[in-house]
Structure formats: C-alpha cells, structure tokens
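Why do we bother with a discrete structure alphabet at all? Because it lets us treat a fold like text: something you can write down, compare, and reason about line by line. To make this less abstract, here is a complete entry for Annexin. Read it the way you would read a sentence in a foreign language you are learning: slowly, and without expecting to understand everything at once.
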Amino acid sequence: MVEYAGACWSEIVRQRARLPHTLSSLLDWTHPNRRIFNRTGDGTLCTGIPSSPEADTPVTMAAIGSRGTVTEFRGFNADEDAQKLRKGMKGVGTDESAIIEILSKRTIAQRQLIKQAFKKAVGKDLLDELKGELTGNFEKVVVGLLMPSPVYSAYELRNAIKGAGTDEGCLIDILASQNNQEMRAIIAAYKNEYGKDLEDDVCSDTSGMFQRVLVSLLTANRDESDRVDQAQAVQDAKDMFEAGEACWGTDEVKFLTVLCIRNRKHLLRVFEEYQKISNRDIEESIKREMSGNLEDAFLAIVKCLRNKPAFFAERLYKSMKGLGTTDSILIRVMVSRCEIDMLDIKAQFQKMYGKTLYSFIKGDCSGDYRNILLQLCGSDS
C-alpha cells in the first residue's frame, strides 16, 4: 500500500470548493487505462484518492495488492455505477443485490470515484445514504468497503478504543500486521479523521508491557532491510532464551527489543537459532512465558512475520468456529484483505483446516451479509 499522508479523501471533498478547478473533470472517466493524479504534501503517492488537477503523478485504479480477490473492474464508469446505486435506493425497499454487485467488484480507488460521482449527481453523500438504507452486519461491510484502506483501519482502531472497554484483539490484529509505510498512513488517517494522536488514544486505553509493545509498533520504525547478521541472530536468540525459559520470571523487554525492531529475514533466522538453543519453537515459549494480551500481541507479531496470510486465515477460522460468529473479526479481515492477499488467505485456510473459506462463510452467515462476504471471498476453491 502506498503511504497515505496529508488530507484524506473526505478532507479533499470538503475542500474541493477552494480548488481553482473542480475535481469533476478528473473523475468523469470511463476507460480503464485512464489515470487520476495525486501527490501528497511530502511528495509521496496516495493510491486511489484523487487530488487537484495540478498534481502530476499518475495513480491507477488498480487494487492496492496483487493477490486479492477484488481487482480493478475493466470498463469502469463511476457515473453509471452511481446511478445504479441511486436507483437501488429509490422508492420503497432497497436493491441489496445491486449494491453487492457494484461495491464488491470495484477497487477501493474506484469506489472513491463512485462516491464523488454520486455526490455530484445526487447532491448527497453516498455513505450517508447507504447507512440510512442498510442495517446490521451488511451495513458494516458496505461502510468498510467505501473507506480508503488506512481510513478503514483508523476507523476500526477508533471503535476499538472509544466507549466502555477496549477491543484489544482489534488493536493487535491491525498494529501487528502493518509495515512501516502502512502504519504511518494509518496514524495520519487517524489524526485527520478524529483530530487525535493514535498513540495517545492507545496509551489512554492500555497499560503495562502490552501498552509498550503497541507503542513500539506505532513508532513505525522496524528495520525493513533484508540484511541478516548471523552473529546478532544468535545473540538475539540467546537474549530471548535467557530472558524467558532460562530464568525465573520473564524479562519481556528483551522480547520487545528483538521482535519489534529487527527486520523480517533476520527474525526468521533468530527463530531458527532459538529453536536450536531452547529445543522449543518461539511461539511455544511465548505461550509458556506470557499470558493475556501481551501473549497475544507477541504471538501475532511472530505469526505475521512468518506467514501473514496464515495469521489471517487463523483469525477467520476462530471467528467462525463453534457456536456463534465473531462478526467484528470476520468483517474486518474480509474487508481489509480482499484487495491485498485474500487468494493466499484462502489457500492457507484450506491447507490449515481442510475446508474452504467460502464454505465456512456460507455455513456461518446468512442473507445479504453472507452474499457480500462470499463475493469478497471469491470462488469456492
């Protein structure tokens, strides 16, 4: 995902009247190879969020990842889609199938253009109109799909923090799975949308070593090189062993220092060396030495470093297994990953659990909620 910084799409819409030209000329396009342009204040690209005509860097309507089930819709016409959505909400009742057909088969970037075209044609905000028409989990999926990726993550984090209680699982899922660029984009989106610092809000709702791990992740300062220092890998493994299995009590800071700072390739080597030293897998040791949210956070970090699609496959499985469904997890993963790596998540799900993700969703959900999730999931394979 390309870094999100500066004004997000909603802010651009609010400010469009101040621009010397309207955005309409940029947004009224039909050919899939057309480009819109956007460059943030510091020169970085902002995928799928149109800006002023003076910007000079092309941004495609393509998906933000290469392994998603949602891809760029060829022959895309924002005005036509906006009219179809308007028709689906006019009169008595709502044509949910039309909403599903359009929104589940357009990329995030394309949905932003549909939102703009709808406002231009109808004079109302598409998101507000859909909220007035829809309810329940189906509404939550649609609301998520209409947000740029970092804005959606910021929205989920805000919901996890505000009000009584904290959804620590949501904080872990999102913060443990981002690279530096993605994390900075979420932090910027959170500030822009809510006028608050994400770190401050996280700190106000968490405590102890769990809080320190989240704050470390929020610095977005992990080494992202490919360099593996063999001697350092051995030392890191030794430090974690001596901080946990080899002593009474656990020095969690040693785990934080290694797991939240080192690059992925180096850490994979560290995990190998740890196995040699301790005769245990690092995940097993974390389970033995820690508990609660801290255990969950460190496990999520390790699992995402090893195999991120497998991590999300496990989250999906746990959200649906047994009685009842944890819809918040199911929705968040399906919405946030459908354009990035859902193909890999599906493959991992079948490998790990012997059943397809499609079949799980079909058996666990119902109605329009099930239908839109199945579209995001893709074929039953």
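What the structure line is telling us, in plain words: Confidence is low (pLDDT under 50) at residues 1-59. Residues 292-320 form the longest helix (29 residues).
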